[in-house]
Amino acid sequence: MFDWRKKRKQQKRLREAISQVRYILHADDDVLSDAQKETLAGVFEAGEKIREQDKTSAIDAYYAEAKEKIRRYAPKYRSSRMREILDILAVVCMIAFGLRGLFAQPFKIPTSSMQPTLFGTHYLEKDVVKTPYPMSFLLSSAVPAQATIQSDGRLDQYSISETARFGGATLPGKFFFGNSSFMIGNSGYTLPGTWPKVYDYTQLNPNREYRKGETLADGWMSLGDHLFVDQLSHHFFDFKRGEVVVFNTRGILENGKPLAGYYYIKRLAGMPGDTLRIDRNQLYVKPKGASEFKRVQDLAPAFEKLYSGMGGYQGHLNIVGTGPCRYLGSPSAEFVVPEDCYFMLGDNSLFSSDSRIWGVVPRRNMVGRAAFVFWPFTRRWGIPDHEQPIQVPTSLPEGNSFPQMALQ
Questions:
Q1: Looking at the domain assignment, is residue 113 inside a domain?
Q2: How do residues 319-354 score in pLDDT, each as one tens digit?
Q3: DSSP β-ladder status, 319-320 and 294-295
């Protein structure tokens, strides 16, 4: 038994030595001198000869000689284990970036225009996030947004800053959101988010006298949804009405100026040749070649929840913010979608900059279908657009959002 084990160990050492020399000759061919190659090739041939003739008695001497010659003649910095690991990592990265560029590219939702289907950076009510920080950031991309009034006074509008920090260090997660700082009375506050976001969720009023002990904010700021976009399938299967699609804004203008942001995500509402109109918060579509208008949800069931009146869904409106839309801005206005173009609408109709404002999206601008929400791990995780509205009636908006959206 002892002799069998010894022989097996010797055979293993022989294979290792031959394999190492072969690898060096192959991987370091560009840096080895002719003399080094000749020496190492001799070591390799000697090892192969011993293996072919099964000269067990010669293995130990060969192994020692092979190790010594590898040490003397092989470039250490090239034959190290670290180099092998780096080679593997380089290949893995090339494959990953290739797949990213060709098939599934990650995107971050930039704004609130697709809420409550998909969320950009947004405020959440206190009870929505169930885990404490920092676990809340890992699971829900959320950091605390909490502040209590420390001293009586009014908001000092001249103190507002998105870079200054009061009271020392801030939570690490706020790095991803940006911070907004301000003074009320003699006290300073720093909350996560750009100033418009902070102003929205705190409902700060410069004309109001705040009292010590009042709650200014008691919730969370979430970084929003991150998803993979399928960039391949639309080359084989054309886009369909109701799909959530990412597109670039190259060549699309609003009031003669390029749109803010290069990538947008909206729901495809109008196909080439469609005639569209919006009447009493309902989008009607007359498809190309049809003689009458139909409700958009009758043509694509994906729109059903937009007309549920629940969870913050509002249907489709003739206005954005406080003003009429450029296209479909009145119940009598109609719009015909040009060929090779699409009419894209956000689900958060009252606060969505979409085709009602800046017109159609050419097909060449279409990037791909929203495929999978990979972070955060909320009710929206997984296949996009799969969740039904939360069963809370949509109310009037407060600030720049609907309060029901903060429950999600």
A1: no
A2: 998 889 999 999 999 999 999 999 999 999 999 999
A3: unpaired
